[in-house]
């Protein structure tokens, strides 16, 4: 150990680094575990496009949607060649589906969102529920009553909702 010559009197000197490589390796594993319990993972399946018309087509085929008056929805009529569906109509229809479905979900009006999955998290497989959660979630919170943001429905985006203990997603 070399002494600092600028310093007068007794006292500790400054330690100078040597040219040798460090011998110690420090590792840390966080003991962090979610207090609220397991979450539910929402992500689009890899084989599904994210355009409003494509999403609507997949939702309605999955659910075989027929309106209460017995008529097929605008999108199914379009697919059958009965009517043209504009981009604005696709957006509007998708927003209507999302808002209506959000009210039927057994989720609280607000829930925490994380992007960190853990062992024990469940994966949601219902397409309309996945789309609804993606459209109504920001980086940190899911809000049931917010206006859907269709730009948030994109392949590769994953949302994990955290619920209070005792409450689960379907």
The H/E string reads EHHHEEHEE
Strand order of the largest sheet: 3-1-5-2-4
| Percent of residues in helices | 25-40%
Taking the sheet with the most strands, its summary is: 5 strands, mixed
Strand content: 5-15%
- Taking pLDDT < 50 over at least 5 consecutive residues as the criterion, the unreliable ranges are 65-72
Number of strands: 5
- Terminal CA distance reads 65 Å
Topology:
Blueprint: E1 39-43, H1 52-63, H2 74-79, H3 87-104, E2 110-114, E3 122-123, H4 127-135, E4 141-143, E5 158-162
Parallel strand pairs: 1-3
Antiparallel strand pairs: 1-5, 2-4, 2-5
Descriptive overview:
- The protein is an alpha+beta fold and 170 residues long.
- The chain has one domain (39-162).
- The protein has four helices and five strands; from the N terminus they run βαααββαββ.
- The protein has helices at residues 52-63, 74-79, 87-104, 127-135, and strands at residues 39-43, 110-114, 122-123, 141-143, 158-162.
- α1 crosses α3 (87-104) and α3 packs across α4 (127-135).
- The longest helix has 18 residues, at 87-104.
- The radius of gyration is 27 Å and the shape is elongated.
């Amino acid at each position: 150990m070399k002494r600092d010559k600028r310093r007068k009197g007794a006292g500790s000197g400054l330690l100078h680094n040597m040219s040798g490589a460090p011998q110690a390796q420090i590792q840390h594993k966080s003991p962090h575990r979610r207090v609220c319990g397991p979450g539910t993972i929402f992500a689009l399946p890899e084989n599904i496009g994210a355009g409003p018309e494509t999403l609507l087509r997949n939702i309605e085929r999955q659910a075989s949607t027929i309106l209460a008056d017995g008529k097929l929805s605008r999108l199914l009529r379009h697919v059958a060649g009965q009517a043209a569906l504009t981009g604005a109509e696709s957006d509007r229809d998708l927003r209507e589906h999302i808002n209506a479905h959000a009210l039927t979900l057994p989720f609280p009006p607000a829930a925490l969102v994380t992007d960190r999955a853990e062992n024990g998290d469940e994966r949601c497989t219902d397409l309309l529920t996945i789309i609804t959660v993606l459209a109504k979630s920001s980086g940190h919170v899911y809000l049931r009553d917010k206006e859907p943001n269709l730009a948030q429905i994109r392949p590769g985006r994953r949302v994990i909702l955290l619920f209070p203990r005792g409450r689960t997603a379907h």
